[in-house]
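Example S7 (structure tokens).
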């Protein structure tokens, strides 16, 4: 039996660019190098069933991707008339080799993805094509510095952020922040034929609808729509307030973050462009912006977590600090009930519950609240950080394995440069400090909207008559706390005793935040 996909002999002048988490047509490393080296360049994206089949049928990330693909298809056509994006639905390990054969491509180009499953997928595709005599080339595109580009003086990966950041800032030059001028060679983007040699049509609606791939609408926030064009709008708006970022970023009711995390995750905007702008504003010779410096630090944290995942892939399943795997987490029906209450925003702690409603209703959670909710699950409920990590992985539109894992291990004190185990967020203190007027809480817990701030942050401390005057009855309108923080804190100190003398000093007398 002949392989119908092998219809055209490999042509060294023809290349295929495989897009994955880099859904844009500008400042794109793999696309630039392919265009520079070949006369005909096709671009493709695979809706990989190895990933999609594990998702719920209503998933905002799938909506975001399809929206971004439509914009990308149009952007490619704007760069070169007749060009566009080829979209396939199936196993990427099969679809990319088959498509390369159908197009007669002599080379495959793609950008790095250091997640463990992606590395295995890319290696399998590369081996298949190399065996056929094709060239295979991959490039850094998702971070400024990757893998082993920033190491200690002893040529070891960093395990603490601040020295890493200092080394990052020392190493960065305009070269690392400069764009790849895709437009310079855009005429080499290939005009798409009406059909492939196997009869597959390419013209018309190349990007499928949700229903075509078995998904349903999940309610993507309109602010995240528009692919690369939407990312541009968000970035331009953020630059108007970046100088205030350091002062506003921790307050969930304020417009402080850039809201670009999803666009960074899927590459609808270039990390080089963001870092270049932040560095120029933050470290200007005539006086830098503190807000821009703080935001650049957040981008550097992203690089830091990616290099941690590269050098220590075990963190995807285990603690970075192995001794923390000795901790005995709460298990059984009571722990499961607590976990379910946390997931559904029924813990009785308003800031925690409002944050969980935010992620469940929007697919987004403010960064300060990610720390608060993670700390509550781990150190108030005593539940394994991996359960929370998995829940965030399912719900977050901007889910990124390296950053999500790094954040959860930071909260659990088990990761690189993590907070000491005795630093335990007090959810009431966090609420009073970062949502003092309760604007965020009331947005997601409208049943508490009539409570004044003095009662809102810890409603169980109010007198029943005070709550009743505001139309609130604990246990009916809002749950009583499922755990007492003071009691839980002592239990956490006991739980972490197995690692007490392994890298951290004795806990101070006052450590509740």
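Recovered sequence:
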């Amino acid at each position: 039996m002949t392989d119908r996909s092998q219809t055209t002999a490999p042509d060294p002048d023809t290349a295929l660019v495989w897009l994955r988490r880099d859904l844009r047509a500008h400042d794109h490393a793999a696309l630039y190098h392919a265009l520079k080296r070949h006369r005909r360049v096709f671009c493709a994206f695979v809706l990989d069933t190895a990933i999609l089949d594990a998702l719920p049928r209503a998933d905002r990330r799938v909506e975001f991707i399809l929206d971004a693909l439509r914009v990308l298809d149009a952007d490619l056509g704007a760069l070169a008339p007749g060009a566009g994006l080829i979209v396939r639905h199936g196993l990427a390990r099969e679809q990319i080799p088959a498509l390369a054969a159908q197009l007669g491509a002599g080379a495959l180009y793609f950008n790095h993805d250091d997640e463990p499953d992606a590395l295995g997928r890319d290696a399998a595709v590369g081996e298949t094509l190399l065996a056929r005599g094709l060239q295979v080339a991959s490039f850094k595109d998702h971070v400024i510095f990757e893998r082993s580009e920033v190491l200690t003086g002893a040529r070891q990966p960093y395990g603490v952020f601040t020295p890493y950041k200092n080394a990052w800032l020392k190493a960065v030059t305009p070269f690392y922040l400069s764009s790849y001028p895709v437009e310079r060679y855009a005429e080499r983007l290939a005009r798409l034929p009406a059909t492939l040699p196997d009869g597959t049509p390419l013209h018309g609606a190349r990007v499928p609808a949700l229903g075509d791939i078995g998904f349903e609408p999940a309610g993507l926030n309109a602010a995240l729509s528009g692919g690369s064009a939407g990312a541009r709008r968000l970035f331009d708006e953020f630059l108007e307030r970046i100088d205030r970022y350091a002062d506003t970023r921790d307050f969930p009711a304020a417009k402080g973050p850039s809201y670009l995390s999803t666009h960074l995750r899927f590459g609808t905007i270039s990390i080089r462009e963001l870092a270049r702008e932040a560095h120029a504003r933050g470290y200007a010779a005539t006086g830098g912006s503190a807000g821009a410096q703080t935001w650049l630090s957040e981008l550097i944290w992203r690089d830091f977590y990616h290099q941690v995942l590269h050098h220590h892939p075990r963190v995807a399943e285990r603690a970075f600090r192995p001794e923390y795997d000795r901790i005995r987490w709460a298990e059984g029906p009571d722990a499961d009930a607590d976990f379910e209450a946390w997931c559904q925003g029924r813990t009785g702690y308003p800031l925690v519950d409002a944050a969980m409603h935010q992620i469940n209703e929007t697919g987004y959670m403010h960064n300060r609240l990610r720390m608060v909710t993670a700390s509550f699950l781990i150190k108030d409920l005593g539940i394994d950080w991996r359960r929370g990590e998995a829940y965030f992985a399912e719900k977050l539109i901007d889910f990124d394995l390296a950053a999500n894992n790094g954040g959860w291990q930071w909260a659990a004190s088990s990761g690189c440069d993590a907070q000491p185990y005795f630093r335990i967020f007090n959810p009431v203190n966090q609420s009073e400090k970062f949502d003092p007027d309760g604007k965020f809480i009331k947005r997601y817990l409208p049943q508490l909207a009539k409570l004044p701030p003095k009662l809102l942050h810890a409603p169980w401390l109010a007198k029943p008559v005070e709550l009743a005057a505001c139309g609130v009855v604990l246990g009916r309108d809002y749950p009583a706390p499922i755990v007492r923080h003071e009691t839980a804190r002592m239990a956490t100190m006991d739980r972490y005793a197995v690692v007490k003398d392994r890298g951290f000093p004795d806990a101070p007398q006052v450590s509740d935040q």
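Notes on this example. The chain has three domains: 11-141, 143-180+229-311, 322-499.
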